[in-house]
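Quick question about two entries, pasted in order.
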Amino acid sequence: MNLTSKDMATIEQALNDAIRNCNGYRNSLNYREVLNKLQNLPRNDNQQCYEVTSLDGLRYDYDDSK
C-alpha cells in the first residue's frame, strides 16, 4: 500500500489528537507506538509516497462466491 504525504499528515494528526485526548496510559502508548512506526517508514522519493508493506508475507484472498 502506498500512502501520499497528505495521507501521512492526516494519519499523524489523527494519532496526535488521539494521544492528547485518550483516556488511559496504555492507549496513549499504543498510539505513540503506531505514530513512531509511521514516521520511520521508508519514503519513495520518486513517487512522493510512503511504502507500507506487510512483513509477515501472508496474503489473504477471501472469495465468498459459491
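Here is the second entry:
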Amino acid sequence: MPSTTLLKAAGYGSFLVAIKHAVSFELLENNSSDCISFRNYQTLRIHTARLVGTKEVIIAWSSSAWYLRRGIRTSGLLTAMAGILQAYATLH
C-alpha cells in the first residue's frame, strides 16, 4: 500500500496543475486575435491540450473511484476535485 502522505501530495499536486491549466486557457483565449499565424498555431495547441485534458479527467476520475472503493476517502475526494477542475479547464 502506498504511503498516504505521498497520495495526498499527488492529490494536491493534481489540484494545483488543474488550477494552472484553467488560468493558462484564459490567457490563450484572450490573445487569440493578435496574429493570424499565431491564431492557427493556438487553435491547434488548444485542440491538442483539450484532448490531453480529457484524458487527464478520465484518469483522475478513475483514480478517484479506485480510492473511494477502497475507503481512502481523502485521496479520493482530492483526486475527484482535481478531475472536476481539469474538466472545467478543458471544456471551458
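Reply: The two ends are 36 Å apart (CA to CA). Residues 4-91 form one domain. Hope that helps.
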